[in-house]
Specification:
elongated; 11% helix; two-stranded antiparallel sheet; 148 residues; 4-stranded antiparallel beta sheet
Length: 148
């Protein structure tokens, strides 16, 4: 309990827990906003995987256009991976990045007649779907088996 003197009046300040207050007891409440230092954003799942996934040395190939290099981002926020992949070059990549690149496909489409006979429709065709990238194990002086 603290006592202050304001303009001839004696004011008593007391800190009390809400549970200790009696019903209908007059209370003056001073709210103090506490400043909290900003925290760094949590890394996304992809960034967390980058830290734990084993790394492999691979040779990158762009199967759709063998001369085109690919700017590539994996993850977002702090710790994200930003690459510029060039065909024929070797890279030390985490297995999760290799799996992600392997999953990227160009979906092919076919035109077929509608079931009700009112015309045609375009639908995805798994037979025309193409792999976009090829990542092969790097062996000094040669390229060996396909990964994934």
């Amino acid at each position: 309990m603290t006592t202050k003197k304001e303009e001839g009046k004696q004011v008593t300040e007391q800190v009390a827990k809400i549970e200790d207050l009696k019903p209908n007891q007059p209370v003056i409440v001073n709210l103090v906003q506490q400043r909290v230092a900003p925290t760094a954003p949590k890394p996304c799942l992809e960034v967390q995987l980058l830290k734990t996934s084993p790394k492999k040395r691979v040779v990158f190939q762009n199967l759709l256009d063998p001369t085109e290099d690919i700017p590539f981002n994996y993850g977002s926020g702090p710790g994200a991976l930003h690459l510029h992949l060039h065909p024929g070059k070797t890279y030390n990549l985490a297995q999760c990045v290799i799996d992600h690149l392997h999953s990227r496909k160009q979906i092919g489409y076919s035109e077929r007649d509608k079931a009700d006979g009112t015309g045609t429709e375009v639908v995805p065709d798994p037979a025309k779907t193409k792999q976009r990238f090829l990542l092969t194990d790097y062996v000094k002086g040669q390229v060996s088996s396909k990964i994934a």
